[in-house]
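Notes, p. 3: input format for complexes.
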Amino acid sequence: MCCNKDIYFAPLQGYTEDCYRRIHHQLCGGVKGYFTPFVRMEHGQTRSKDMRDIRHDFNEGVPVTPQIIASSANELRKLTDRVLEEGYSAIDINMGCPFPLQTRHGRGAGLLPHPDVVEQVCNAMSEYTQVEFSVKMRLGLSANDEWKDVLPILNDIELKHITLHPRIGEQQYNGTTDEDSFGEFLSACKHKVIYNGDLCSIKDIDRIIAKFPSIEGVMLGRGLLARPTLAYEYANGINLSDDDVISRMKSMHSMLHEQYSRIIPAEAAILSKLRTFWDYAEPTIGRKAWKKLKKAGNMRNYMIAVNEL
Ligand SMILES: Cc1cc2nc3c(=O)[nH]c(=O)nc-3n(C[C@H](O)[C@H](O)[C@H](O)COP(=O)(O)O)c2cc1C
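Output follows (309 residues plus flavin mononucleotide):
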């Protein structure tokens, strides 16, 4: 079975930044769209690191949608205005981030227990008739039925789609996904719905599509970090050998190395950034090789471990 749904690359702060997205798009592909890690306000300003990540010249040729995270209608307007200055016409709204640093301030999944604030945020979104908004959310912050008060509000505005990760914020990434609640959400949602969560193989993708045939597509995060060719394999209905996948990962890694070397001055900083490339790759490269990469204390030993893959 293959390829009748679109695959999107999930935003992963610290992983899927502009360099990674460009190189993934060039060497692996199979992905209809990439979402940036969220752009947020800090001390009343957008962070320059976030704005750099969405700059057009760093995303040329890559189908990318910036994501923003806001706790109020005002924050949403400020962030939307900044993103629009970069020339985008589509923006994804984060209503799912589970990290207490954000939820405590009513951002991400922290919005979900407050339908009144969601309504204000949605009203602000509706002011921007030229923008195609989408929403990425969880079932709730601390209960799996909080979405029931939020979805009618979202159903009332124009949205490109809603991506649902069927966990609650308090689970972070632990425990299982709640597919029954996903099914209920899907039936009640008037927008296109994208499934996100724990899809790590073609078999996982096929199973979810067979279970929920009316979804618009699937969004993959850690599964694509582990096996960057997964979307390409799904889209083309093929299974690459592990050797082929590892060889493509090594090409990605070598391009990342080259690009990080140009923008990061210190070798130790390049090494710590490069090392993250393998964080989720243990299922693909094996435990022994993965541990060797993790443990390599300097660039020389690290590159020996990479070359041994
Ligand atoms: C390290 C890390 C960073 C993440 N950063 C973001 C983010 O910036 N925006 C967002 O909407 N989700 C973020 N997520 C959530 C992922 O986009 C995705 O919803 C989650 O990992 C579940 O999908 P997966 O099981 O396919 O990885 C992050 C997750 C992880 C593990």
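The longest helix spans residues 242-263.
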